[in-house]
Amino acid sequence: MQVIDSAKDMQREAARLRAAGRVVGFVPTMGYLHEGHLSLMRIARERSDVLVVSIFVNPTQFRPGEDFDAYPRDYERDARLLQDVGCDILFYPNAAEMYPDGYRTYVIVERLGDVLEGAARPGFFRGVATVVTKLFNIVQPHLAIFGQKDVQQAAVIQRMVQDLNLPVEIVVGPIIREQDGLAMSSRNAYLSPEERRDATVLYKALTRAREAVAAGERDVETIIASMEAMIGQAASARVDYIAVVNPQTFEPVAQIDRQVLALLAVFIGSTRLIDNMLVTPANRH
Ligand code: AMP
């Protein structure tokens, strides 16, 4: 595996690969890799000749007071996992390489980037859209894989790629979960053993929503109330938001008459976790 830390060198290598007719697949990450990340890399591997992964904890998507400094980092372990999964190139820039002195340009995706995660974390999607645009220009991938775990992020990037005519295909990979349903996340490393047990309420609340809809419940207020009650059962849990939205527009839904997306953000102690599930009403007879 080649490790490249300079944007210029990465661009040169990407141009060379493209000129040689190689299909470049790309998985951007913030590192501290887990099976969720690796699953996206396997999807990329299958569909491309060269797998490029980036590890960059992007400062512009964190607000002051968020966990930028505390975000878990383990380069040696990540490098081993990347070797094993068959990564060809690791792009591993530092913050000064991505945002040198005098940096002034940002990408904003309106509406989709302002609701839910965007409302809870102002500036978050501006940081994400900006860094992903930069990474696409540096790595020049034919396809890039994102996780359904961060479903709104995937939608924001798809919107941006379409709006800005970026020549890259976006593929979305399924959520990888622990055995008890907790969605894998680098941030799960923050949880104490008690909090780790409490953290299963996110998946349980989503499952409860899915089961209620399958049993015929159509009223979103009722569903959200029962999800809140489930979260309330965990001592360390505090709801940030629970929403049921149209999976394309992310606009709230009141009555369920087609597939919807249930999403939630929950603080477990001081750790903020997110999860989501597509929910489909049973066929009418
Ligand atoms: P991150 O390192 O958290 O920025 O995540 C990098 C990519 O991995 C993003 O596209 C995430 O959506 C994806 N990802 C994170 N957790 C999971 C998971 N549990 N299952 C599938 N994809 C994931």
Topology diagram in text:
Blueprint: E1 2-4, H1 7-19, E2 24-29, H2 35-47, E3 50-55, H3 75-85, E4 89-91, H4 95-98, H5 117-120, H6 124-139, E5 143-147, H7 151-163, E6 169-173, H8 193-198, H9 201-214, H10 220-232, E7 237-245, E8 260-268, E9 271-279
Parallel strand pairs: 1-4, 2-3, 2-5, 3-4, 5-6
Antiparallel strand pairs: 7-8, 8-9
Helix pairs in contact: 6-7, 9-10
The protein binds adenosine monophosphate.
Residues 29-30, 36-37, 39-40, 146-147, 149-150, 173, 175-176, 183-186 line the site of adenosine monophosphate.
Low-confidence stretches: none
| Gyration radius, in Å | 19 Å
Strand content: 15-25%
As a percent range, the share of helical residues equals: 25-40%
Bound molecules: adenosine monophosphate
What number is the mean pLDDT? 97
Helices and strands: which structural class?
A: alpha/beta
Order of helices and strands: EHEHEHEHHHEHEHHHEEE
